[in-house]
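User: These chains co-purify. Model them together.
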Amino acid sequence: MKTDRSTERGLASRENWPGYLGGMLTEAAFILGLTLLAFIMAVIAKAVF
Amino acid sequence: MLLRPRLDDHRVIGKYTGKIIIGVGLLMVIPLVTSIIFGEWDTVLDFVISIALCMIFGFGTQILCRTDRDLNWSHGLVVASGSWVVATILGAMPHWLSGHEGSYLDAMFDVMSGYTTTGLYLLQDLDHIAHGLNMWRHLLTYAGGQGIVVIALTFLFKGTAGAYKLYVGEGKDERLLPNVVHTARAIWLVSLTWLVIGTALLAITGMALGQEPVRALLHGLWVFMGAWSTGGFAPQSYNTLWYHSLSYEVVSIVIFIAGSFNFALHWAVWTGKRKEILKNVETVSFAITLSLTVLIATFALAKAGVYPDAMSLFRKAFYQLASGHTTTGFSTIYARAFVTQWGPIGLVATTIAMAIGASACSTGGGIKGIRMGVMFKAFIQDIRKAVSPERAIVSAKFHHVRDVFLDDGLVRTTMTITIAYLSLYGLTAIVGTLCGYDFLQSAFEGVSAASNTGLSCGVTSPTMPDVMKALYIAAMWLGRLEFMSVFALGGYFVTMVRGR
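Assistant: Joint model of the two components:
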């Protein structure tokens, strides 16, 4: 398992970082998706009222 | 029959509480160094006195409470909840010595608010406090977000068997890795990585807005700490409204929503399970409830014509709702605007968002997305049972890192904690109303305190009755530790009096 390997070799070892940064970008993309959805709601709400 | 704790039980609790307070004292070295760098000598003295008191308490208990016994479950719960109280009493010292607090109760209010990542504050003249004190405020909330016990586990403990009991007592019950100390270190790895990147982004944005490099870096660091911990403290009294910047808002939104995620989710996504973010019951629940509350508030505000264009409407509605739902408490509107501009529907939508709150095992508070998901699944399961043949076996499951089947025990625990939160929300609303505040505003502010959010509609102020200050301190503490360890502490005192 990946987590076991990372524990054995140290959580902060260099080989883990591409995965960590990819994870951060995935999280940021998810959040920006929700933000975009809220913007679309505001545009529709303004168009309705 | 209740068993009265023995001297050895007191010793174990005293020893571990003392270790955590040593950790708090060591944490104060960072604002001390900040004050030395900026030549704030009065503040340096405040922190020297406060560190000395923490060390006297911490090392005093190590001497007085010598024992080789390890923690059992009830010890772990009592230490976790008790150490938060002692850490609040001692952590309030720099606030009180600064002269910016009306009383020691106000100072304790601000420190409990910091540790619990709430963000309400009673400190006066925030715009002119020392850098050292501002560093301490934000460090409190950043450390509190990870959990002060997690700090102690990371740096002061050498993997005792009782460590997991302390960790659970602080309201975190997920093991990212098999070893609890490794779990605590993984939590710090995630938090520190976000700290470096988030602070850099905010500092660059600040410099682009015209801030001097040092000021931009300090603001970036402090706003990051307030955002990531879903704490809501900011260096200026106008909170994040002070920046008047779309880019600052977007960066802070990304940080505080990421901060509200379960650390188990972070770890899963960071270790290769990218699709977890789309499948996890907490992110799905969060996306649905956030979108619904944003929808309600956006249409209510659009109908009322509060904001002139779609961009302003989006910036104000989404920021406050996302901040409320993640229990952050950052705000880009004036506190009274919730009452004077947003009206009852806006207040109720924000109150619901705050009440639901963030993810379990995160820096956030509130009922939590996983409990909303479990209750929804249990509700659907009951409906399916009602319409299925009598002998049919109807099972339900949800996804949280792995597939988990619903059982009655899980649903009962979920309902118990949810009812406890709803009762606490109700109590704070009623007491606020009895103290003379409008019911809706009392409910908003009470839910904000108990869910560790920190948004304010103007009720929280130094002139607030002391009974409300004390109640909010208790509500923040209960809400952050999710009741059980606080009840265990209460039970411990009961057994001291009534046990045999």
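The CA atoms of residues 35 and 48 of chain A lie 20 Å apart.
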